[in-house]
Amino acid sequence: MAIPIQGGFADVEAASFEALPRGRYHVTVFEGEVKQSGPNAKHPGADYLAWTLKVQEGKYSNRNVWYNTSLTEEARGLLKAFLQCFYEEDELNNPDFELDINDVVGRECIAVVRVGTNPNTGEANNNVSRCEAYDPEAFELAEDDEELPV
Q1: CB of 36 within 8 A of CB of 46?
Q2: Per-residue pLDDT tens for 106-140?
Q3: Which residues, other chains included, contact 125 with Cβ-Cβ below 8 Å and sequence gap of 6+?
Q4: How far apart are CA 29 and CA 105, in angstroms?
Q5: What is the rounded CA–CA span in Å between residue 44 and residue 37?
Q6: pLDDT tens-digit profile of 19-59?
Q7: Residue by residue, what is the 3-state secondary structure of the chain?
Q8: How far is Cα 52 from Cα 66, in angstroms, rounded to an integer?
Q9: Is pLDDT of 141 > 80?
Q10: Pairwise CA distance, residues 70 & 11, whole Å
Q11: Which domains does the chain carry?
């Protein structure tokens, strides 16, 4: 099936997404879904939560970064650290706590982003090392050309 492209591409510059500079970004949880780890993972076939985080401010507004939290027993501390951005300690420590992904979607936090290298392509990519609670009065957006503090 042919799709007409109005005007063609003569006046359009090809675009690509460069990795974001390392730093702390104000983000909103845009999406979360349960996935299974692949055959080469530390725990093949184990469930994890794949979170899409959308940058909210500055030059990189509307760009996405991704953060995964394993659902394995040994990784519950990392999941708890992420959820502490959104829930009170009493809620998380309740033995009957149940996570509803939809309760997290739309909430804000700070993503601490690092730059690494994609082993498959050799290109720079981003890695969210952790998330922190968002405090609008304490968060400072860096100038466009400054490296954001980590």
Answers
A1: yes
A2: 999 999 999 999 888 899 999 999 999 999 888 87
A3: 19, 115, 116, 117, 118
A4: 5
A5: 5
A6: 999 999 999 999 999 999 999 999 999 999 999 999 999 99
A7: CCCCCCCCCCCCCCCCCCCCCCEEEEEEEEEEEEEECCCCCCCCCCEEEEEEEEECCHHHCCCEEEEEEECCHHHHHHHHHHHCCCCCHHHHHCCCCCCCHHHHCCCEEEEEEEEEECCCCCCEEEEEEEEEECCCCCCCCCCCCCCCCC
A8: 5
A9: no
A10: 45
A11: 23-133 (2.40.50)
- Tokens coding 25: 């970004």
Identity (one letter) of the amino acid at 39? P
Rounded distance, CA 101 to CA 141, Å?
28
Q: Is residue 142 over pLDDT 70? A: no
Which residues are bridge partners to 15 per DSSP?
A: none
Nearest to 112 by CA among 38, 2, 7, 20: 20
CB 72 within 8 A of CB 78: no
